[in-house]
Design goal:
The protein has 313 residues and is of the alpha/beta class. Helices cover 47% and strands 12% of the residues. The protein folds into 2 domains: 74 residues, Orthogonal Bundle (434 Repressor (Amino-terminal Domain)); 215 residues, 2-Layer Sandwich (Endonuclease, Chain A). It has 16 helices and 8 strands.
């Protein structure tokens, strides 16, 4: 049997918290499944917490304390973990991390990439190394863990409601080998199927539309005005001027109007994942199938590979 990799508690607060959680769980003779039994969470979340990749939701911390008899230890240290989640993130992103905790709804557009909290480790590593090719492995690992720790925004039951608009090039311009792209897109589909996150694809032949050159992210709150965030490779800007946010928000509404409907978009992502799984690359949607109507009618069950093309890697 392969030896399980240990958790390095010296790597940071999240790792130390996770290491203590695993030690207490195993000392109690409980599996991941048994420890989450009776909560609203799954074992995958608990596994990510033990490996220092996800935050511990407060209600889960209370559940763990009750089951393990740890006298409120994990609940008391939730705040430490929340603050430590800033590790691995750029300084200009720190305000966004705080606001994410309070957001009721998040609307997002990215013209080239899958949103950060939906990215798996290979995808994150590829993006970080593209921007920072000489990044030391320790720092790279911190960035990966930091971004994966934000997965709760799309995956937890108490996450904000999310609306994500992506350009179709996200599907047919791979930044990973086929098997890893397949896994990444399959993960995206899995999250979308939970119906806390809704997505639309904007086709290449959609014509001119708002936000053609830059990403945009809107957050709304119960007791505060909405804000917008946009960023470039090495900088970001949080916009809170009400009139400007309103103007950007109206532009986002026009962008939504250019996208495919959510079910068609989801089926296209599923089809792209299948193409990569078969070692092929998805063809451009707009280039091979002009007009959304055909995609709405398609059964995606053709045996000959459908909208995939042969490609050499």
């Amino acid at each position: 049997m392969a030896r399980r990799k240990g958790i390095d508690g010296s790597a940071g607060v999240l790792n130390l918290y996770g290491k203590e959680l695993r030690w207490k769980r195993e000392a109690a003779g409980l599996s991941l499944e048994k420890l989450v039994e009776g909560s609203f969470y799954g074992k995958s979340l608990l596994s990510d917490i033990e490996r220092g990749q996800r935050r511990m939701p407060l209600d889960l911390a209370r559940h763990v304390d009750r089951v393990l008899g740890t006298d409120g230890f994990f609940e008391r240290h939730c705040e430490d973990v929340r603050r430590a989640r800033k590790d691995g993130h750029a300084e200009y992103f720190s305000d966004v991390l705080e606001l994410e905790e309070q957001a009721l709804e998040i609307e997002e557009w990215n013209p080239r990439l899958i949103p950060g909290p939906l990215q798996l480790e290979p995808y994150i590593r590829a993006i970080v190394l593209a921007a920072y090719p000489t990044e030391p492995e320790e720092s790279l690992a911190a960035k990966v863990a930091g971004r994966r720790s934000r997965a709760w925004l799309f995956e937890d039951k108490d996450s904000p409601e999310n609306w994500v608009i992506l350009h179709e090039s996200v599907l047919w311009e791979p930044i990973l080998p086929p098997d890893e792209m397949a896994e990444q897109l399959a993960h995206l589909v899995e999250v979308l199927r939970r119906r806390r996150t809704f997505t639309q694809l904007v086709l290449r032949n959609a014509g001119a539309h708002p936000f053609m050159a830059s990403p945009a992210r809107f957050m709304t709150f119960a007791d505060a005005p909405p804000v917008m965030y946009t960023e470039n490779m090495y900088s970001g800007q949080l916009i809170d001027d009400p009139l400007l946010v309103k103007q950007y928000s109206k532009a986002y509404g026009r962008l939504r109007a250019t996208g495919l409907d959510t079910e068609t978009s989801l089926r296209l992502i599923e089809r792209a994942a299948e193409c990569y799984r078969n070692g092929k690359q998805p063809a451009e949607v707009a280039g091979h199938f002009p007009g959304a109507a055909l995609w709405r009618k398609s059964s995606y069950s053709n045996e000959d590979g459908g909208n995939c093309v042969e490609v050499q890697y």
